[in-house]
UniProtKB/TrEMBL annotation, chains A, B:
This is TetR family transcriptional regulator. GO terms for molecular function: DNA-binding transcription factor activity; transcription cis-regulatory region binding. The keyword Glycoprotein does not apply. Residues 40-59 bind DNA. Residues 17-77 form the HTH tetR-type domain. Keywords: DNA-binding. The keyword DNA-binding applies. It comes from Murinocardiopsis flavida. It holds the Pfam family TetR_N.
Length: 210, 210
DNA sequence: TTACTACTATACTCATCGGTATGGCAACTA
DNA sequence: TAGTTGCCATACCGATGAGTATAGTAGTAA
């Protein structure tokens, strides 16, 4: 359940050869730090220590490479959040998501959300397959918040999920566009208040499953 | 106070000639809809009904045009929010900001925040002067929230401001990356809860200034 | 009349970049 | 031994785009 099989699309990469792995790693760094459209495939190849030909032999196109990059990042973040929740059973899961985000930001650079950035960088090509990956990431986050809220006993879990997602996304954005460094901490505190409010006013529904 | 004089920078445009006005209008549409890096100066000129030469005669460079675009949008949004607050004295100002955002989104297309998008699109050039405009816009929003919260009697106005900014930014992001259409409404409700909580637990400080 | 301003029109330079072509080499496998 | 796979190296094509150059026109102000 943690690693749900994603439908195989045109850009899907079955198994990664060493060259493909190196290219995808380099793409992960460069696309995130400098932006997708600003980084040439040539640069990715150079940083990976392979030739441009190899990149195109492993990935059909730059679009496919971009999708692989975002898809892998998506998987990583999902795994990160899910294992954080599992490893911190004493923390209310809804809040643990924010702790996971905080730790993720600390571990890697606080440069903002790769998916939000990708969306902006690919604004001119709405048909770009990466948009499906981007939407999928946000949808997963929303559904996760909704399920966790529901399990916590919140009746209007769907509404709360949207509010929590606001906080999550907003905290990421603030890390990239403001000097505020404790945005995630603030978002977590706000989430705590919203959760308490939802439990107090909306009332508890069923006891949390499992 | 509504239209505070901004310091004149290298990209500042004193008075706009008809050609410059047309170019800036076209840039405003195209940069926002398709993205800054994806739109050529040539395209802006064509859409404006002027020649590329005219654009470069009025604006030193594409960077200057981008700054003028963002700066003008910044001014417009500030004015929009400030007059919305003034025209709705019955609404708590902190919440009126979200109403203003909602109305702004409804009036124009809900395509997300131009500044967040610009930041992502200009990731590779940290020295780009537009980053100052972007940071300025977010700083203004934060300071506005802080002042309004303080006026409402919130003691920890600075902390609340960061949380409200999270909600504001998050709601914008959700409009561009998810199918959730009532993000601003949800953010407003969350802001209401946070405000009540801040007033109840943090306690009121001084009575709101005039 | 002169000079400046705002503009049109077109052509050009230079750089970047997505993607392809060609050709070759080493390892593994049928 | 033959074929396939994964890779290297290099060159190339076509498109796009920032910015410049040149030359000319209409209005306006000294």
């Amino acid at each position: 359940m943690a690693t749900k099989e994603r439908e195989s699309s045109s850009w899907e990469v079955p198994r990664l050869t060493p060259g493909a792995r190196a290219a995808l790693d380099a793409a992960g760094r460069l696309f995130y730090e400098r932006g997708i459209t600003a980084v040439a495939v040539e640069s990715v190849a150079e940083a990976a220590g392979v030739t441009k030909k190899t990149v195109y032999d492993r990935f059909k196109s730059k679009s496919a490479l971009v999708c692989a990059y975002l898809s892998e990042r998506d998987s990583r973040y999902r795994g990160w959040v899910e294992s954080w929740i599992a490893e911190h059973p004493e923390t209310p899961p809804v809040l643990a998501v924010f702790d996971a985000l905080d730790a993720w930001m600390t571990a890697r650079g606080p440069k903002g959300c790769a998916f939000v950035h990708a969306h902006a960088q690919l604004l001119d090509t709405p048909e770009h397959p990466a948009h499906r990956v981007i939407n999928g990431q946000k949808q997963w986050l929303h559904d996760t918040f909704r399920d966790l809220a529901h399990d916590a006993g919140v009746r209007s879990a769907d509404a709360l999920a949207a509010e929590l997602l606001c906080l999550h996304e907003g905290a990421c954005v603030m890390h990239s566009t403001t000097d505020i460094t404790d945005a995630v901490t603030r978002a977590r505190r706000a989430a705590h208040v919203l959760l308490q409010d939802a439990l107090a006013t909306g009332g508890r529904s069923a006891p949390g499953r499992k």
